[in-house]
Design goal:
Elements lengths: L10 H17 L4 H24 L13 H14 L4 H20 L24
Helix pairs in contact: 1-2, 2-4
Length: 130
């Protein structure tokens, strides 16, 4: 299963994405491709959160304060089992989210970084040659 190319976000979700995009472009010494990947990973996560919250009839708009480690673990599981993404892709996504939440913690948008306890997926074992 493939991820949606440009899922729609709530106004709050889009604002969170846009703000982080501005920060990455203005203050970080990283390539445009890396910025695009970070923002794509964050967009997918925000859309997934909003869909989950809507289905549970909770708040629908994304806010980093509403994200808990358990939600990030569910997302990691979703990437692995529902989307069947390779460990390297899941880990790149987790790295993007860890970077985003570290920034939200550093700028005091949140009090606790929910991504800090999240572990990466073990890499696939290389096939043995016979």
């Amino acid at each position: 299963m493939k991820r949606t190319a440009q899922p729609l976000l709530s106004q709050d979700g889009q604002q969170a994405l846009d703000l982080y995009g501005q920060v990455l472009q203005q203050f970080e010494d990283i390539s445009p491709v890396t910025i695009r990947n970070y923002l794509s990973d964050l967009r997918q996560f925000i859309a997934w959160c909003e869909d989950c919250w809507r289905a549970g009839q909770e708040q629908c708009s994304f806010t980093p304060q509403a994200v808990a480690p358990s939600l990030l673990m569910c997302y990691r599981e979703y990437l692995q089992t529902t989307l069947c993404l390779k460990p390297s892709t899941v880990n790149r996504t987790l790295m993007s989210l860890k970077r985003y939440f570290a920034w939200t913690r550093k700028t005091q948008l949140i009090q606790f970084d929910p991504a800090s306890p999240i572990k990466f997926v073990p890499k696939e074992a290389a096939p043995l040659g016979i």
